[in-house]
Amino acid sequence: MIPPPADSAASLTPHENSVLKKAPTHTPDPAENNSRRDFILRAAALGLTGATGLAAETVAMTPARPKPPILFHAGHQHDHSADTLKALAAFGVKHICSGQLEAKMDAWSIDALTRLRRHVESFGIKLDTVPLPLSSREISKVELPEILLAKDPERERAIENICTMIRHAGAVGIPMVKYNLTFIGVVRTDRTIGRGGASRSSFDYAAAKQDPPITAAGPISEAIYWDRIEYFLKRVVPVAEEARVKIALHPQDPAMPATGWRSVHTVLGSVAGLQRFVETVPSAYHGLNFCQGSVAEMLTHPREQIDDVIRYFGQRGKIFNVHFRNIRGGYLNFQETFPDEGDMDMPRALRTYREVGYTGMIMPDHVPQIAGDPQGHKAFAFCFGYIQSLLQQLHAET
Is the dihedral of CA 198, 199, 202, 206 positive or negative? Predict the structure, then answer.
């Protein structure tokens, strides 16, 4: 385990957990070759001839502890068109999350989901996840705003539709759905220029404008936000358990100060908030769409802190999917980068996912915009190559 700096607890913002709870770390077994080692150490203490050589020999003879198996794989999101699936098959990417489906129930019928699954599988690819119509859009633009607005009886109908979608996903063999619960959407400021002139999505709180100063939801305190989250989870998690479908929440992107943003206290934008979220309704089917980039945006020193956050949620089985995104900067001021040029050590992060036994997809997320690539296809191809090369290296480290 690579420890955080000595003052890392002091560097956590008020919007993070005051002290990140450390997951248990691996401890070598002292009983290995115990009797032989005791003899050698006693011999060395008595100054017996050859004891030092015997000690070195024992270290060499002690078998290396086997590394955990690699249970994750490259994945994709956003699109399931034939052209995209052909490219993914060529890249060796065999698992995806589909593109966004319509909120209409016709798109979520058993027949429609079966056709979608068979379409994906016809390219030799597995449909691991579908996104619920609870995207990262701002509350006035999201597909089912009534759920967070607590507008009844519309909220009841919308939640029942979500439950039906989950049941149907399970019925056709789709093991996971992902979703967001955000009022403010994804907030960014002016783009910045990165490597080779690439245009980076960026956020600088000091330059950001809260315009308009309040969302259509009105003022949302922490208590109100948590009440609406808990209402949703208590209805939906039991259905997910019954259907054997994991439900994976994406964190708030980006983190905001404790004072909030546009009169919303963004409770899902801190490590402490995510800790509370996964514990609200305990279930093996309730967890996170762990966006590494969004979590890094919650931290003051992402390079030093991200691995312990991965350990906290990973060792509790709460990481269901990984958005493998890097940034430069951190809390309240960052730029999104290609995975190889940001502040986080991505090979080390991948080893940490291995350490905690993570079993899902490692997928690109947001990418910088480059010249001649309006749809981001070249940028995403670079990210897939980067992920596949890290996986190949990791397999060689057994």
Answer: positive
pTM of the model: 0.86
Distance CA 135, CA 120 (A): 22
Q: Which of 267, 274, 75, 87 is nearest to 184 (CA)?
A: 267
For the stretch 192-223, pLDDT in tens is 999 999 999 999 999 999 999 999 999 999 99
CA distance 145 to 181: 10
**Residue 56: closest CA among 44, 74, 72, 70:** 44
Highest mean pLDDT among 13-17, 27-31, 242-246: 242-246
Could you give the residue range(s) of every CATH 3.20.20.150 domain in the chain? 69-395
Cα–Cα distance, 18 to 35 (Å, whole number): 44
How far apart, in whole angstroms, are the C-alpha atoms of residue 46 and residue 48?
Answer: 6
134 token code pair: 């609870």
Helix, strand, coil content of the chain in percent (nearest 5): 40, 15, 45
In 26-63, which positions are buried (b, 16+ CB within 10 angstroms) versus exposed (e)? eeeeeeeeeeebeebeebeeeeeeebeebeeeeeeeee
Do 198 and 376 touch, CB atoms closer than 8 A?
A: no
Overall fold of domain 69-395: TIM Barrel (3.20.20)
Q: Give me the pLDDT at residue 345, please.
A: 98
Which residue carries 């992402």 as its tokens? 302
**pLDDT at residue 155, rounded to an integer:** 98
Q: Torsion angle of alpha carbons 167, 314, 256, 279, nearest 10°?
A: 60
Long-range contacts of 60-66 (CB under 8 A, 24+ apart): 61/33, 62/32, 62/33, 65/28, 66/398
pLDDT for 344 beyond 50: yes
Residue recorded with tokens 């992107």: 253
Tens digits of residue pLDDT in 55-94: 455 555 667 778 899 999 999 999 999 999 999 999 999 9
Angle (CA) 352-201-220 rounded to 5° is 85
